[in-house]
Amino acid sequence: MGSPFSINGGACVAMVGKDCVAIACDLRLGMQALTVSNNFPKIFNYGDVYLGLTGLATDVATVSDLFRYKVNMYRLREERNISPQTMANLVSSSLYERRFGPYFVSPVIAGINQTTGKPFICGFDSIGCIDFAKDFIVSGTASDQLFGTCEGLWEPDLGPEDLFETVSQALLNAVDRDALSGWGAHVYIIEKDKVTKRLLKGRQD
Amino acid sequence: MASVFSGAPPQSGPGYSFKQTPTEAPSGTRQHGFYPYTDNGGSTLGISGADFTILAGDTRHTSGYNINTRYAPKLFKIGGEGPDNKGASIVLSVVGFAADGEALKERLDTIVKMYKYQHGKPMSVAACAQRLSHILYGKRFFPYYVHAILGGLDEEGRGALYSYDPVGSYEREQCRAAGAAASLIMPFLDNQVNFKNQYVPDSGSGHELQEKPRTPLDQNHVLELVRDAFTSAVERHIEVGDGLQVMIIKKEGIMEAFHPLKQD
Amino acid sequence: MEVLLGITGKDFTIVAASKAAMRGATILKASDDKTRALNSTSLMAFSGEAGDTVQFAEYIQANIQLYSMRNSMELSPTATANFVRGELARALRSRRPYTVNLILGGYDKIADKPTLYWIDYLASLAPVPYAAHGYAQYYCLSILDKHHHPDIDFEQGMKLLRMCTQELKRRLPIDFKGVVVKVITKDGIREQEYEDDVKVAIP
């Protein structure tokens, strides 16, 4: 059946800009070569934090539900939103809890820390090792392609509009070279006090 | 366990011709394995323009995690005279198993030379391209383990580029990346050379949306794209680096250049 | 060769399941009902490994009904789908997981919209306008891709279902003995008469 990471397919990317961050995902859900749904978003919102999850679809649902529960409990206890940095550590420790029977997901976090006003992104492997990156994070079955497009298109200090164009082009062109990803995309542009969500139409093959 | 799933670099890729470690206990019958193929890493790329074709390839040569040399060219002039291949107008790039690449180059070079001696005129790229396909298919059941790209100028003087799979399926294209970092470079090229996913602003929505028209790219612009593609690939792929060999085929002849790449 | 199909329209959800109960190449029964009503607006169709299917379906059915009794209200189709997925996902990482594929048809009375959920044995959950499981996927999804619209009325929905079952009859190598058809609307779940012995032309 192949790796659990590539049964359902999917791609996710996060990028840093000037006082803004972007996170985007594709919409495909498949079973091997068969596409089952073309409206399966992989980005989930937890207050100020956006979490992208690619990998095995069942674990995408399980993990996103688990973090909704954990973040809600955090908010009730602390009476404040969780910061992206704290969320990163929560994700890391929660995944490492399953060290010898992992969730088959590759999470990506994007958000702006409301205390410092600084953009934050990071990625993880399936057992919670954090990858703090200053530029961009990619995950999913199109990760090779995303590395190529992001490395080629990204530049430092992009404004919200340019960052949107960059992240969108990086994702669309990457998923067009991956049979297991695509069918449109969701793109979030996150600024200090504004979040713009856009639905992109992509190739329907 | 998960780190096994999340793919440490050589998932099933780099290997050696000879097994490094015995697979069985020292007692009993000893088994020797010989694998006729090795992956020597590296990447190549070709883009054709209105009156030129650019081919490029990095010069790193690897086996597994080892770097065998930092300068092993993957671009070869075909059908030229003498040690400098004077008068050649076709370039072959090969990536994959370097020994097969070298053997393939020698074969094609000889054939193109013999053609010229026998017919008194140089071989056209179209003919050379088809001949290369036949050479590859001739070894259908013990293939040359290479991804070849052939570049030159067609009979109208336009840039011509042909890409091949190891058993000879071929196609004329605008641009093509091959080798270890092909998956990184190719979507970037789709976007920047063929303007994929780019549209004319305010030209409508849905199917009315006008694609950005494909215009012939300027030579210096293409060269910039090639260098960008490789510096990007070097950042993210361990088998790509050290140096970039570039050949520009024009009607005046072939210009060759070398640009250093990161050696880490 | 079990067939599960689901189609939504503007005010209904159709769920169809093949009537053949099979064991290997033998058909044990030709009037099997592979569906269970969970409450008045949720219907679950199931296929998969022999014992697991009914065991899991009736476990879910009992728990959904228990919820209705304890709380004097019914769980919405969306909530039901997430509960079912949760149970299947929990079982997936247990000593013995259920090998069951599901289609959950429903009608959301609050949003006043038909719902359909596709769930596989790995507990992947997807809300979809139309769904299929097993070999039916390869034959029917392309037909539905071409002909389905979210605002079709019931007659058009049944026509679509007929196109699907005819194609299955034409192309599946084993007879699946026709389908049971259930319809979920705002008024509840009802069984729909369905003519199984319509002749199909095989070119």
Automatic annotation (TrEMBL), chain A:
Keywords: Cytoplasm, Nucleus, Proteasome
GO cellular component, one term: nucleus
Keyword Nucleus found: yes
Listed SUPFAM superfamilies: N-terminal nucleophile aminohydrolases (Ntn hydrolases)
Location relative to the cell: Cytoplasm; Nucleus
Primary subcellular site in the record, as a coarse category: cytoplasm
Role noted for this protein: Component of the proteasome, a multicatalytic proteinase complex which is characterized by its ability to cleave peptides with Arg, Phe, Tyr, Leu, and Glu adjacent to the leaving group at neutral or slightly basic pH. The proteasome has an ATP-dependent proteolytic activity.
Family: Belongs to the peptidase T1B family.
Complexes and interactors: The 26S proteasome consists of a 20S proteasome core and two 19S regulatory subunits. The 20S proteasome core is composed of 28 subunits that are arranged in four stacked rings, resulting in a barrel-shaped structure. The two end rings are each formed by seven alpha subunits, and the two central rings are each formed by seven beta subunits. The catalytic chamber with the active sites is on the inside of the barrel. Component of the proteasome complex.
Name of the protein: Proteasome subunit beta
From TrEMBL, chain B:
Disordered as annotated region, ranges: 1-34
GO terms for biological process, alphabetical: proteolysis involved in protein catabolic process
Stored InterPro entries: Ntn_hydrolases_N (IPR029055), Proteasome_sua/b (IPR001353), Proteasome_suB-type (IPR023333)
Gene Ontology CC, one term: cytoplasm
First-listed, main subcellular location of the protein, grouped into a coarse class: nucleus
A Pfam cross-reference name: Proteasome
Alphabetical list of CDD domains matching this protein: proteasome_beta_type_1
Subcellular location: Nucleus
Assigned keywords, A-Z: Cytoplasm, Nucleus, Proteasome
Biased composition annotated in UniProt, kind: Polar residues: 18-30
PANTHER family found in the cross-reference section: METALLOPROTEASE TLDD, PROTEASOME SUBUNIT BETA TYPE-1
Protein name stated in the entry: N-terminal nucleophile aminohydrolase
Organism: Delitschia confertaspora ATCC 74209
Lineage of source species: Eukaryota, Fungi, Dikarya, Ascomycota, Pezizomycotina
TrEMBL record, chain C:
PANTHER family for this protein: METALLOPROTEASE TLDD (PTHR32194), PROTEASOME SUBUNIT BETA TYPE-1 (PTHR32194:SF2)
Role of this protein: Component of the proteasome, a multicatalytic proteinase complex which is characterized by its ability to cleave peptides with Arg, Phe, Tyr, Leu, and Glu adjacent to the leaving group at neutral or slightly basic pH. The proteasome has an ATP-dependent proteolytic activity.
Localization terms from the record: Cytoplasm; Nucleus
Gene3D superfamilies per the UniProt record, alphabetical: Glutamine Phosphoribosylpyrophosphate, subunit 1, domain 1
GO BP: any one term: proteasomal protein catabolic process
A family per Pfam: Proteasome
Protein name: Proteasome subunit beta
Top-level taxonomic group: Eukaryota
Subunit structure comment from the entry: Component of the proteasome complex. The 26S proteasome consists of a 20S proteasome core and two 19S regulatory subunits. The 20S proteasome core is composed of 28 subunits that are arranged in four stacked rings, resulting in a barrel-shaped structure. The two end rings are each formed by seven alpha subunits, and the two central rings are each formed by seven beta subunits. The catalytic chamber with the active sites is on the inside of the barrel.
InterPro entries found in the cross-reference section: Ntn_hydrolases_N (IPR029055), Proteasome_beta2 (IPR035206), Proteasome_bsu_CS (IPR016050), Proteasome_sua/b (IPR001353), Proteasome_suB-type (IPR023333)
Alphabetically ordered keywords of this record: Cytoplasm, Nucleus, Proteasome
Family statement drawn from the similarity comment of this UniProt entry: Belongs to the peptidase T1B family.
Species name: Delitschia confertaspora ATCC 74209
Gene Ontology cellular component annotations, sorted alphabetically: cytoplasm; nucleus; proteasome core complex, beta-subunit complex
